[in-house]
């Protein structure tokens, strides 16, 4: 059954109008027809089963028939601190990290970041990144949308992380500690720090160490900035989460 995001509150027996973006996708791509059933979600953790009651050129009316708690959310709270990369790479990280169950994504500018964003471009990027994440939720069956925060400079990172009661991990190819040395059991917040192309510089690595971050490496091969977060999130989901 097709799933669509709806930004407004949803209630039983309500008839809602899908926004233009969702309606266009439903009509032109999914070929939804009157009396078809679909699933709506708005980020509150529930799924709303609905029936298409009317279709016009640009919008779809949906009658809400039932409401159920969605149990697809990850049991672990993963927060990704991702150095900003090119548009396509950043989109892929946000899309796949959403599918893998992250709770939040904090884009960061580090010393080797090659991407610079003006205030206007930042606003547009945030809107775009959120839509990428919403589409990933539609596809993966999630009903909670990860929080995508406004980009920050590296000097602001300490304000965004807990230095106690959290597992703070920095992926670093020169680390002597493999991911297999992580605690066997863990249930608190997990913060992951991913550097840009070229990685974090030594000053940044030292700064993160002062924030109780642990340097780990995933193996003998150096992973790209868009590959590393997906690899470690999958490992964490297998070790502590809901990957079988």
The separation of the N and C termini measures 24 Å
- Describe the largest sheet: 7 strands, parallel
* Morphology: elongated
Number of strands: 12
Helix content: 25-40%
Low-confidence runs of at least 5 consecutive residues:
none
**Class from helix and strand fractions:** alpha/beta
Q: How many helices does DSSP assign? A: 5
Mean pLDDT: 92
Q: Bin the strand percentage.
A: 25-35%
Over the alpha carbons, how many angstroms does the gyration radius reach?
20 Å
H/E series: EEHEEEEHEHEEEEHEH
Topology readout:
Elements: E1 3-5, E2 15-17, H1 20-29, E3 37-41, E4 46-55, E5 60-69, E6 78-83, H2 87-100, E7 104-109, H3 119-140, E8 147-148, E9 152-153, E10 166-171, E11 189-194, H4 202-210, E12 213-216, H5 228-240
Parallel strand pairs: 1-3, 6-7, 6-11, 7-8, 7-9, 10-11, 10-12
Antiparallel strand pairs: 2-5, 3-4, 4-5
Helix pairs in contact: 2-3, 2-5
């Amino acid at each position: 059954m097709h799933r669509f995001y709806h930004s407004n509150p949803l209630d039983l027996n309500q008839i809602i109008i899908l926004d233009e973006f969702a309606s266009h996708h439903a009509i032109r791509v999914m070929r939804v027809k009157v009396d078809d059933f679909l699933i709506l979600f708005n980020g509150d953790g529930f799924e709303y089963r609905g029936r298409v009651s009317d279709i016009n050129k640009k919008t779809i009316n949906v009658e809400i028939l039932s409401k159920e708690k969605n149990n697809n959310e990850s049991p672990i709270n993963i927060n990704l601190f991702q150095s900003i990369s090119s548009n396509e790479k950043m989109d892929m990280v946000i899309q796949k990290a959403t599918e893998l169950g992250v709770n939040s994504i904090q884009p960061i500018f580090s010393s080797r970041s090659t991407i610079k964003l003006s205030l206007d471009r930042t606003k547009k990027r945030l809107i775009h990144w959120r839509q990428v994440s919403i589409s990933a939720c539609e596809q993966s069956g999630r009903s909670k949308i990860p929080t995508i925060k406004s980009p920050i400079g590296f000097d602001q990172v300490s304000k965004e992380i807990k230095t106690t009661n959290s597992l703070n991990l920095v992926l670093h190819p020169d680390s002597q500690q493999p991911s297999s040395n992580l605690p066997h059991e863990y249930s608190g917040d997990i913060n992951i720090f991913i550097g840009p192309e070229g990685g974090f510089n030594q000053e940044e690595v030292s700064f993160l160490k002062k924030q109780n971050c642990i340097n780990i490496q995933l193996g003998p091969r150096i992973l790209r900035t868009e590959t590393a977060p997906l690899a470690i999130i999958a490992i964490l989901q297998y070790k502590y989460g809901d990957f079988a």
